[in-house]
Amino acid sequence: MPRRNDKTEAEWSVYSQRFATSLRSARQRAGLSQEDVAYRAGLTRYTYQKYEKGESRPGSPANPTLRTVLALSQVLGTSLADLVPGDAPDLRSR
Q1: Rounded Cα gap, residues 78 and 60, in angstroms
Q2: Known SUPFAM superfamilies for this protein (predicted)?
């Protein structure tokens, strides 16, 4: 199994922060609290707060499931394309 390298991990961390910013902006535009979004998307408030911080676990970049991202986009009334930032890092094995 190929190992992830430090450069890829750093790029993913930056990308996760961009996702967090996008998520927070969409929530604010929708006029919802973090608790409202979490409840409607079937998440705990703690988990949702972590995603808005760009984390999945403390010190680990966010990596929500596709199902979670889709639920968030539906709750926030935005498209996946608007929620998920473009210019994703290259995650193929190197």
Answers
A1: 26
A2: lambda repressor-like DNA-binding domains
Q: Per residue in 51-82, is it b (16+ CB within 10 Å) or e — as a string?
A: bbebbeeeeebbebeeebbebbbebbebeeee
The pLDDT tens digits for 69-90 are 999 999 999 999 999 999 988 8
Nearest CA-CA partner of 60 in 51, 68, 69: 51
pLDDT tens digits, 16-44: 999 999 999 999 999 999 999 999 999 99
Q: How many CB atoms lie within 10 A of CB 49?
A: 15
